[in-house]
Hints:
disordered N terminus, hydrolase, aspartyl esterase, twelve-stranded parallel β-sheet, Pectate Lyase C-like, ten-stranded mixed β-sheet
Amino acid sequence: MQFLFILPALFVFVQAVIAASRTSPPSGAVVVRAGTTASGEFKSIQAAVNSFPNDGSTRSIFIYPGTYTEKVYITRKGALTIYGYTTDTSTYTQNQATISFNSGLDQSSSNDETGTLRIHTDNFKMYNVNVKNTRGPGTQAGALSQYGNRAGFYGCAFYGYQDTLYANQGTQVYLKGYIEGKTDFIYGRQGLAYFGGNTIAVKGPGYITASGRQSDDAGSYVFNANTVIQASGAESGTSGGYYFGRPWSLSCFYSFRCPPRPITFTESFSRTLIFKSLRTRRFGSSGTGTPTVSHMCYTQTTRLLELAPVV
């Protein structure tokens, strides 16, 4: 799979970028500013998106500080880049533009439709924007629903509770960002997704990932050098009560990259198979069948990069 080798190289390149501020619009970008009355500016992100022709032209948006309470749905044919206001482009911690909405599956017809930000187009990039679904416990409620090819999210933060990040279709990259939730909060079926250098924050006892890969296709999730922490205000019992993942279907596929070669853990035999939690320093399974790699351990409690086979 070429994906496993190309994206780590991309991650190294992005890590080398020198931190800078982005407090004014790049040349040619359409401006979104809360409460604006200026000609040519927009009060909402969706209005800015809708202002573009549905053609193959490349467009960009710059978002000034503020919380924009709206759903954003992107389907236009041409490439689109969204930039958020920040004083440090190398991290999510200085992001000042937030898209927020309260929407759950009890109010929608599909997981996709719960998403605060829905990407249904190719060649999409987003830098330093926070995306939140504030629905909370009780139902699936996505911050991001990602269906496009060649999508990249750099220094972005995604907040939710259940099903925060729907990496469902297409090739996609998440670098140096933040992903928060409790239950199956990184999940999808056909996505080919790479997660590098992110902070993954757990809000309560549960499962971080749920791969719904349904056949022996190219879909997989690759994790490299991410850090797992407890989220601020995490529920009682979170410590020692969460697992890195569980299968959503019978052909789940994950890869954890560690020097000098990737380690792959393939689930294709029993829905009862789980990853043991990071706290136990061991991955295992229950149910029938034999996984490709039955046990792994690591040398640091929060660094997925340190995974190594048990000898």
